[in-house]
Specification:
By secondary structure, the protein is of the alpha/beta class. It folds into 2 domains: 125 residues, Leucine-rich repeat, LRR (right-handed beta-alpha superhelix) (Alpha-Beta Horseshoe), CATH 3.80.10; 193 residues, Ribonuclease Inhibitor (Leucine-rich repeat, LRR (right-handed beta-alpha superhelix), Alpha-Beta Horseshoe). The strands form 3 sheets. Strands 2-3-5-7-9-11-13-14-16-18-20-22 form a 12-stranded mixed beta sheet, covered by helices on one side. It holds the Pfam family LRR_8.
């Protein structure tokens, strides 16, 4: 029997025991992981198992225990993981979707998620994921919907999404992305673009209208500048345009009136000036218009107030001096409206005479107005 040539203390013995048992447990875990992979005969689910286990290891808070059953080879039974037949071979199951919305999970997205080649849907709304999107996401060539809204992602616009050929729905809102939007974003065949409530800066790219989206929401960023006239190129698709609180300036381009499918137009809380483009009176599908908290002036044209589907018209906190026809009493048509804090004679809660006179003394000619001056 071997004997120690030096006395061993209780503390040293405990440390030695922990070291030995730790090695045993590590070997057992590796063996279990290897056995689980070997137990999966479907190579697509094998890769999914590796990816999901790598993800679980970098999740450090899961208060709702959404990933607590992410154990063992049966990945299709994991909470939030959805399997479906592989399109090219319907006898083979694959991971087609992941939905962990409202999980309040903290962690980050590891490179191994790129092993989920067949993923079509990734919904991570309302969690605490941080860091950046891995460049390896470019392997997710079937990804159709990407929703990482309401998390803690940082850095510049995640350019990796521009390389996803199947992407139609992009939701980055309520994160901490910063810097400019790449013009390439509007060359993609997207149906919905949500980038609101981030820290994006610079101006809206001039090729904005190259997109085919039906919904565009830029609200609560720091773009500034003008709305590009290329917005007219959205005419065949755009139904909702939300540009509130992005520091837009200049006049509202009359090309907005070319968007004949538009239902929602919100340019509130900006620095837009001049009259309302009368072209808006041709938008027969328009239901909601919000022009509040700008520097619009002149007349509120009746052509807008008689739009057939209009249900809400807000133009408060501007410098309008006249409401044509029915515009002064839209409640008679069942339309919700707000005309406070303008320069409307005989209407309550208006601006004082000094403010209104200052605008009258410096009228804006939008035809002569150069964007950014």
């Amino acid at each position: 029997m071997a004997s120690f040539s030096f006395p061993i203390t209780t503390t040293a013995f405990v440390l030695l025991f922990l070291s030995l048992t730790s090695n045993v447990f590590n070997l057992a875990a590796k063996h279990s992981h290897s056995s689980s992979i070997k137990a999966i005969k479907n190579p697509r689910l094998q890769k999914a198992f590796i990816a999901l286990q790598a993800w679980k290891r970098v999740i450090y808070s899961d208060p709702r225990n959404m990933t607590s059953n992410w154990v063992g080879p049966s990945v299709c039974n994991y909470t939030g993981v959805y399997c479906a037949p592989f399109p090219n071979d319907t006898k083979v199951q694959t991971v087609a979707g992941i939905d962990l919305n409202h999980g309040n999970i903290a962690g980050y997205l590891p490179d191994e998620l790129s092993l989920l080649n067949d993923l079509a849907l990734l919904h991570l709304n309302s969690n605490r994921f941080c860091g950046i999107l891995p460049l390896s996401f470019s392997n997710l060539t079937l990804l159709y919907e990407l929703d990482i809204s309401n998390n803690r992602f940082v850095g510049p616009f995640p350019s990796v999404v521009l390389s996803l050929p199947s992407l139609k729905y992009l939701d980055l809102r309520f994160n901490e992305f910063e810097g400019p939007l790449p013009p390439q974003l509007f060359s993609k065949n997207l149906d919905a673009i949500f980038v609101n409530n981030n820290l994006f800066t610079s101006t809206i790219p001039s090729n904005l209208g190259s997109s085919s989206a039906s919904v565009v929401v830029f609200a609560n960023n720091y773009f500034g500048g003008c709305l590009p006239p290329s917005i007219a190129n959205f005419a065949n698709t755009l139904e909702e345009l939300v540009l509130s609180n992005i520091s837009l300036s200049g006049c509202l381009t009359p090309e907005v009136g070319f968007l004949y499918k538009l239902k929602v137009l919100d340019v509130s809380n900006n620095k837009l000036a001049g009259p309302i483009p009368y072209t808006i009176a041709g938008l027969a599908h328009l239901e909601l218009i919000n022009l509040a908290h700008n520097m619009f002036s002149g007349i509120v044209p009746e052509g807008i107030c008689v739009l057939p589907k209009l249900s809400n018209f807000t133009f408060s906190y501007n410098y309008f001096c006249e409401e044509q026809g029915i515009c002064s009493n839209l409640t008679s048509k069942g339309i919700v409206y707000d005309d406070r804090r303008n320069c409307l004679p005989e209407k309550p809660v208006q601006r004082n005479k000094k403010e209104c006179d200052a605008v009258d003394e410096h009228p804006i000619d939008c035809l002569a107005f150069h964007c950014g001056t």
